[in-house]
Fold:
Amino acid sequence: MIDDRANPLRRSRFARPMINPAFSLANVVVERRWWIIAIWLTLAALVIPSASHVEQRLDVAASVPGSESEHVQKLIASRFPAAFSSYAVVVVTGGASPASPDGRTILTQLRRGLSGLPVVTRTLSYLDAADSAFVGANGETYMVVGLKPAGRRPDELVPYLRDATRSVQLGLHERFPELQLRWTGEIALNYDLRKTSAADARNAERRVLPITALMLLLAFGAVAAALLPTIAGALSISLALGGAVLLTHFFPLSLLLQNIVVMLGLGLGIDYALLMVGRFREGLLEGMSSRDAARQAAEKAGHTIALSGASVAIAFSALLIVPVNEMRSIAVGGLLVIVVAVLLATSLLPALLSFMGARINAGRIRGLSLGTASERWRRWGRFVCAHPLAVLVLASAPLGAIALQATRLTSDLPRGDWLPRDMESSRAFRTLTGMRTSGIVNAVRVVVEFPRAATWDSQSGWAALRLVSAKLAADPRVSRVRSLTTATGLISPNLDVLAALPSDVRGSMASADGRLALIEVLPTEEAGARGAGEMVRDLRRMAPESLLGLPGTVVRVGGLPALNVDYETSTLGHFKTIVLVVVAVTLVSLLLGFRSALIAIKAIALNLFSVAVAFGAVVLVFQDGHGIRALGLDGALGGTFPAIPLIVFCVVFGLSMDYEVFLVARIAEAKAGGMSEDDAIVEGLARTGGLISSAAAIMIAVFAAFTLGDFVLIKILGFALSVAVLVDATVMRLAVGPALLKLGGRWNWWPGKAFRVAVVGPKESLRRRDPRAGLSTSPPS
Structure:
């Protein structure tokens, strides 16, 4: 051997031995394991206590900053002082008809109990207007309550309001024992949905953790090895939720974040830990010391986990493009839990494993294998290599039929009664539906801005208001129109009559300066939320002059249906851009990671196919209703939600990359070790087939747990992700993917050396390594 210590070039940067960054970092983790553990303990002590406040800190209402609906909301709040810019509805049942003395007594006591609250501006009920719309067939009635949030989120007022009506109900209980006072409306529904969503997340976590631990026990055959990934998943959730709570001090985050964090924390957190523990046990079985096995696991599995996490993070980062608080909250939650899961798996776990050593196999269950390579997967790999075309056709054809259904996917709001049945607000909403007055919750609010030459009380302005009110009332989707002209019945503006109107009535429909007028449009029961959304789109498409007959007018449309339209437009309007961005960035990262154009393109194509299958399954089950009763719903929804296509694409596309990276990384490692194409594929399947199956089974169990909840959006999301993971981990990665690799042959690794970033150290077999220093030197040619 030549001693080059005297070589004058040895100290030159051109002659320095090449350092494998992954190995160097792995060495630091193992050698400084006490510091690593101390840092994580400190971080956990600082962050995890905040996670207990997550339900109080997350916002429930959707918002679209800069949208027309938001502008209308601000106009109503600032220019119409007596209007119900923010309001809730209290529904009265089990008492007496409001037209009777007893009914008026109930309403009077209710109004007295609410009017004294500092957050209540005014009320509107049968006491103010003896309108038949306030009276149900069985004596039901309701009261509209204007609210003043005073810097708080509107939904935070709901417990306060319910305490007030509970006191009223108790005071009237002896006289009206069947009396029920229930709140509904946008803020009450949002509040109850937040509670339901939080409960679903907690219940799913409680259901899944024991099942996950059992699955890991079957996969590893030892109690200690099964517990470590379970703890890693739970820790990922707690740290991510704690971090999210800290972020709410700087900007608001939506309730959907909690569900996403729990889903991904259980799924990715356990998957990454499973990969790390599995690689560590491989090292022990090969006779390595605990430190060397932990170092190898951190180096090889760590790099795979980092590349997989980067792919998932790319997909979630793209959601930040959408200017909707829910989408950005999902992005923040996803990124938090991904970063935490990757860091836990690549730093804390190797540090702990280096201490545990052979104790990782403590609590071994007899009859369960501790090995990682499976002869069954070797046989399957040989079969795929022998019959790639047959495997490709037989595996992909049935799924292609399901994927074709994705062309029928609609993002409309679901039809029918899809709200959770046990929520107080949904029960009250059903009462309003029975009274055929649920449009009070879905009111379309039209603000008319007059030109400088006219005001709402001028002849031309009044005529314009009468014209637009008549046109709206003639629409079959409209049950009632409320404006100054409909309230007074005047053909022309009579200043004496208008002056005699109560100030709160006039102030709720017209601005003091005469420039703005407010028209409220209540949709029919048949039209529902979907019909109200169509009305919003029609009004926005119409030229204001043709609608009002007055040049220079400006019409702005708001209300809850307009918010839904703006939400859908914003999310779906960015869908193509996000798809292109995610595909392009992921393609580049895979090119750099695997140094192969064909593998990168194949991975993208299989991911897109998995997304299409998930969409197709959603169409068949939720839109068409096939098997939907098994998921706790009464019938076909006829639509999903505007957020579903975007969320499903980003989550599925990111998660699908996990198994691609797991499999191809091991195939690349085997190929770099000198194996032939066929042998490398067989070896990769043998080493990762069981791992992928176990990881997928765990993730499917996690996602399926969310289909058992009451929040329909999360139910659809859990179903879509379960289908996607099932298809991707079985057919795509273990059949179609290997078949395509076999057909690709030597072109799988082109252009190879053109890229300098290694994914799993493919040249390890060609280098001599010094484990103590983390250095590697190339042998002489």
